[in-house]
Specification:
Layout: H1 2-36
């Protein structure tokens, strides 16, 4: 029971991390490209 809850929590957490990374990646690359020029 606890294992399933922890598994679902970790899956949700990793999904949130992937989503936030996908959201932040264009901003970071755009910022770095703008500052390098």
């Amino acid at each position: 029971m606890f294992f399933r809850v922890a598994l679902s929590l970790s899956a949700k957490f990793s999904n949130m991390i992937v989503h936030s990374t996908a959201m932040m990646a264009p901003i970071i690359t755009n910022h770095s490209a703008r500052s390098s020029r």
